[in-house]
Amino acid sequence: MAHPMISLLLTLNALVFMSWMVPLAWVRRSMETHFLVSWDALADGRLWVLITSVFSHNLFIHIFLNMFVLWSFGATLERTIGSGRFLRFYLAAGAIASFSHAAVSKFLMSAPGLPALGASGAIAGVVMVFALLYPRERILLFGLIPIPALWGALAFVALDAWGLMAQAEGGGLPIGHGAHLGGALTGFVYYFTTLRPKLAYRRRTWQSA
User: What is the pTM of this model?
Assistant: First the structure.
């Protein structure tokens, strides 16, 4: 299998999505308890929601778009950095993105109970690392406009920063801008503290061989 971790992530997301579709009240309550992240959930000790919420979608369009982007960028990234390293990074980016949403909701929006779900924070980290590794690779912004990957990633960061400021003032759209920014920041830090030094070391090793 060329992309085992991407295939695993797609499968897990699909299974959790199907669980949301089960028309039983007790299942719905369980999903809301264990697959939504918020500051209140963390304060209650349900720290696992930092990860479980990353695999959680309850709308088809949400999971479809997230999984499409994950496959589009994640397959190349997994092939580049290796399956194990990719999975560890993805989970770390997802957990930090989830915590970022919870913190933003608590301290910027005064809404500690505001729940969130979805893989987009972790995927924002994947896209950021991809863009830093392949900054000139052409991607389609909003699926329409060809643009270098790095410029596309930075454009989404700018949009999320603007959206977060709007939410802090009581407006904006019901989008997890805090999670997106947390995931993107994780990707940025991971690239410059881990991947770039490794790549530089490899180049020096090859040149001296």
Answer: 0.93
